[in-house]
Amino acid sequence: MKIKVKVNGAWREDEVEPRLLLVHYLRDVAGLTGTHIGCETSICGACTVLVNGEAVKSCTLFAVQADGAEILTIEGLAPDGQLHPLQQGFWEEHGLQCGFCTPGMILASYQLLKRNPHPSPEEIRQGLEGNLCRCTGYQHIVKAVEWAAARMSS
Amino acid sequence: MQAFEYARPKTAQEAVALLASEWGKSELLAGGSDLLSRMKDDVSAPQRIVSLSGVHELRGIAASARGLRLGALVTLDELETHPAVREHYAGIAQAVEQVGGPQIRNVGTVGGNLCQRPRCWYYRNGFGLLATYKGRPLVPDGDNRYHAIFGNEGPAYFVSPSSLAPILIALGASLRLLGPDGPRDLPVEQFFVTPKSEAEREHAIKPNEVITEVLVPPANGTKSGFYEILQKESLDWPLAMAAVALQMEGRRVEKARVVLGQVAPVPWPSAEAEEALKGKMVSEEVAEEAGRAAASKATPLSKNKYKVQLARVAVKRAVLLAAGLVKKGEV
Ligand SMILES: Cc1cc2nc3c(=O)[nH]c(=O)nc-3n(C[C@H](O)[C@H](O)[C@H](O)COP(=O)(O)OP(=O)(O)OC[C@H]3O[C@@H](n4cnc5c(N)ncnc54)[C@H](O)[C@@H]3O)c2cc1C
Ligand code: FES
Ligand code: FES
Fold first, then answer.
1. For residue B228, what are the domain limits?
2. Residues 53-92 of A with CB under 8 A from B
3. What is the CATH number of the domain that holds B260?
């Protein structure tokens, strides 16, 4: 079935099977492999993208559910190569080690800062409760989001 | 995952017409957070999926003197952040803000939350809702640590998973369903039933009915609260939960509703706890007594006695929260 979606600012139309998951559409059809697949069971959050501005786990949505929607993936955060403050924050504060969870962490943080531009460390942890990291121990991720919050409000 | 046909009706009436009259053939799709996980595991394999996303009449929250009207497609996130819900129905907000994580609440809907299927690991691994193997029930002698401690005389041992159901029942909410013969209303309490055979469901809904809305009566000063206990605070399934609605005269309870979740195949109203609260001035001791009363008739299985204590504490804390004697984060 035909779907039309705006991915990182550009509309595209594709013929997809209804059972195709959004994450597979983004990675295999649109070629955007920045969105990762960790658990495929809506636990780990590695597949987080924004659909119409809301963070969702793209492994637990059909691509056809996003028909007509605007999607933002990690690639869309730095369209001209200039890092988004969140990306820079993860860089500056060592918010990653292997980097597998990072695209999802950043997009979940993106929604968090949009709704709450000055979150407390506790609120950051709550906002990221749907994202797992096997490496960092989270402390540096919280710092990275605080760094970005400070940069974005300055 | 099996291939299927995908239909996108524009009205609830059209959705009803697209649904099959027997279970298993077709499924409604709201947010998909429960349905997709079942389909990935081939626990559900519908030939047709009827997406509700284009049915705009199912959206929207309306708060008025007649109470609260929640369209079936209202997301848990919309519900949690709605000012009238937070102000007058604190128990609803407290229940919903703890469901899954932000990404789940962005897609999960009111209708889907009420109709989600049990998390029982035998069911989710293909042994059926009643969890049997060659006709033998697997739960009584199996790993039943997350199973029912009430209403578990069999053949159903799973627990009702919805966080929203207990508080809606405590508040006296009802559902509106649309089927081929038109609409009908049903108290949320009667929507949940214990199946007696594998052919039955845990919801009093027909395969070709759609929940269109949930109606919550006016709060009129009713105080509500919700408390759940999880193994870890982030992204976990609650082990026990309690929803409480109190009609109070000062600090004295005129009438109480206490409904537990995750403890029985249906949301479990506790007449014992309600009786323990009636006519009392709420205090820590009275709340404690309500918890003890709620747990008094539990019949735990071989590996879930710990849940009896959790249920007791959940009731106590939900009472204190509802009465405003403690704030969230203090209990
Ligand atoms: C990690 C994780 C943690 C979770 N924790 C909790 C928790 O603590 N508490 C809790 O309650 N839930 C929890 N959930 C479950 C989640 O809340 C539900 O999956 C969600 O609410 C379902 O809503 P949906 O719209 O996505 O449902 P869908 O998956 O779209 O639908 C679920 C079922 O309901 C049926 N349905 C949907 N809408 C209607 C309608 N209008 N009329 C009739 N039938 C309908 C569908 O056919 C389907 O069978 C958790 C989920 C995950 C992944
Ligand atoms: S891959 Fe989607 S939540 Fe883990
Ligand atoms: S940096 Fe390795 S999983 Fe988070």
1. 223-323
2. 54-57, 60-62, 64-65
3. 3.30.390.50
C-alpha angle B199-B49-B186 in degrees, rounded to nearest 5: 55
| pLDDT, tens digit, 9 for 90 and up, residues A41-95 | 999 999 999 999 999 999 999 999 999 999 999 999 998 889 999 999 999 999 9
What does pLDDT average to over chain B?
A: 97
The answer, for A25 touching chain B at a CB cutoff of 8 Å, is: no
CB of B211 within 8 A of CB of B114?
A: yes
| Span from the CA of A103 to the centroid of ligand 3 (angstroms) | 10
Of B184, B216, B248, which residue sits at a domain end?
Answer: B216
Structural domains of chain A ordered from first start: 2-74 (3.10.20.30), 85-152 (1.10.150.120)
Do residues B110 and B176 share a domain?
Answer: yes
B95: exposed, middle or buried (Cβ count in 10 Å: 0-12, 13-18, 19+): buried
| Cα–Cα separations (whole angstroms), residue B208 to B18, B19, B24, B145, B164 | 8, 5, 11, 34, 23
Q: Do residues A89 and A95 touch, judged by C-beta distance below 8 A?
A: yes
Query: Locate tokens 């193994």: which residue?
Result: B231
**Is the CB of A132 within 6 Å of ligand 2?**
no
Decide if B235 is inside a domain. yes
Q: Is the ipTM above a cut-off of 0.95? A: yes
